[in-house]
Amino acid sequence: MKLRLDLAKALRPEDVLELAAANSHRYSAKPVFSKTGIGQLSPTSTADSAKESALSTALIWKVS
Length: 64
Prior knowledge:
Oligomer: single chain
Strand order of the largest sheet: 1-2
Number of helices: 3
Shape: elongated
Distance between the termini: 16 Å
Structural class: mainly alpha
């Protein structure tokens, strides 16, 4: 997704939270490196990519 600064200025915290919640199912808290305890983000599927594109388009129309 390209970052458009004119649209980024119009974003509300609720919009950002909604997008973050839409991707939260991909996060795995299982540590990849045992010493750091950092989780990982699984790769997107084709369906996830299509959904993200649709959400991005909807958000652009909403804030512009």
